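FAR1 domain-containing protein
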Amino acid sequence: MADVSAECMAEYDGIVSRMFDSEEEGFEFYNKYALEKGFSVRKGYVEWDEANEKIILRKLVCSREGCREEKHMKRKREDRKRKPRNITRVGCKAKFVIARVVKTGRWFVKDFIDEHNHPLAPRDLSCFLRSHRRISDEKKADIIEMESVGIKKHKIMDVLCMQYGGYDHVGCTTGDIYNFCHRYKQETVAAGDAQTVIRHMMARQERDPDYFFKYLVDKAGHLKGLFWSDT
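Tokens:
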């Protein structure tokens, strides 16, 4: 028992004595710690300097910090237009606060509470919690390439699982792949030239006879609207 307490104290001392070169480095440290412990991290309260130009304090919290607003809890069932989301915020007090030293620009740990009021996820499942799910640039390129030749999103996930050795090594979920593909299409339409997009759609139609698309352009030739649907 004494050995466990000594180990916990040593871990605590090692964390509160840490220094970081940037706010982002502090976030990455706490997020990596959260991955090992089994919880997700959310950015919370922030303080700015007097000139309102630089952040001087950042509070990072467990994603289950806080509570759902009372107005959402008391709303009558018949007034709801859709099924309410599961309650995920349970008032957890765990936090990691870092502050910036003005003279050096480095960040130190100002406050650290590591007590959670909810069960923590096992290591093989914590990778699916929100702050730990990321699609790397390499995976993004693979997803775009597979999606462009008509591979379904769930099949793309299967390929990534085989390529990286399992779901827990992919770093994202099938839902994340759907969301990324949707955002990518929107960005392509917003930033790309109309003719480039249209040529891409025509190429897709040549590969897939059931592929359908319609588009609208303004007088200057800019893309105003686009609709497409694959098989």
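The longest helix spans residues 174-191.
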